[in-house]
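Sanity check

After download, print the first record. It should look like this:
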Amino acid sequence: MNLYTIARQSLRRRKAKTLFLALGIILSVGLVVTLINVGNNVNESIAANLDEFGANIIVTPRNDEINLNYAGINISGTTNQKNELTTEDVLKIKRIKNGKNISILAPKLLNIAVTNKGKVIVNGVKFDEEKRLKKWWKIKGSYPNSKDEIILGSQATERLMLSKGERLKIDGNEYKITGVLNETGSQDDEMVFMDLTEAGLLFNKQNKVSFIEVAALCYDCPIEEIVAQTSAMLPGAKVTPIKQAIESKMNAIRGFENFAVGISAVIMLISVLIVFVNVNASVNERTKEIGILKSIGFRDSHILKIIIYEVAFISIISGLVGYLISLPASSVITPFLTMEGYTGGNFNYGDLPLAVGISLLVGITAGLYPAIRATKLDPTVAFRAI
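Expected structure tokens:
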């Protein structure tokens, strides 16, 4: 009879205690792996959603002009050379190495125009991208569906004394107002928004853009890499990351990661205590058995291995079961904790070795001291118990 057989027979004889020990490890492993997967899904959800709540990179033409807006007063220097951005540059940004991290590209063409109600700032945009970029926009009416339709900012509406459904002449062309933006507290309130292509034709700036707002997914790629790759792709452009926005997003992600790590540490500590108490009690109950084994020639190393084999066997099985439990648990919990019921995260099947590893770590760490204590038992104790 070898040591493995003795360990297995011992577990069979103590079915109730073995089950209790296994349940403790199963619950801890299941909870930890569930937290890891839910945490990853929540982080992906935060990254995907926050990166779409506004741009985190601005691409503008590079020039030697010094511009400063302070307290509403614009101070600018002279310009000796000025580059221009085009719609082709938008396509180039998509072709950078980390193009998959680019979530939204929103080019804009700004121009001051003359209307039948006075001068206005016209912003040519791609409405599909603008809607995704500015999810906080609330419109009374609807977005334009054709090139002869526009929407107005709240302040522009008041100044021009117009409302939804009326028409506005811009540089001689007539446009229908399909919607009015609710107040945003930004420069958008003062603008008239129209289709980018139509604005290019109206102002004789076909295929030109004033600047490009970029929403980059910075969850798995440093934003500096995207900025550097974009700068290399567009040498005539200035690529500026909005560091405050990026830092706030990453702080939110790191905050949840720290929370998940803290909860996992507490769960593992509780699991270690459960295993320790169980194995220690088992050693106390098996004083007679251990004493007899030592009296018939089993060495201390043999006793140690028997206890460790028992704990390791339970840990491996418990790790597998805990991993299987975490599969449905992650799927159920994730939608409740993510933004907008996010379910896009995939379960990482590479966590199976992690689950078994955690289980073994917990089991052997907690069982090592009781196993060592078992080797110190005096064989004569067994004969006193007979």
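If your output differs, re-run the checksum step. Summary of this record's structure: Residues 68-81 have pLDDT under 50 and may be disordered.
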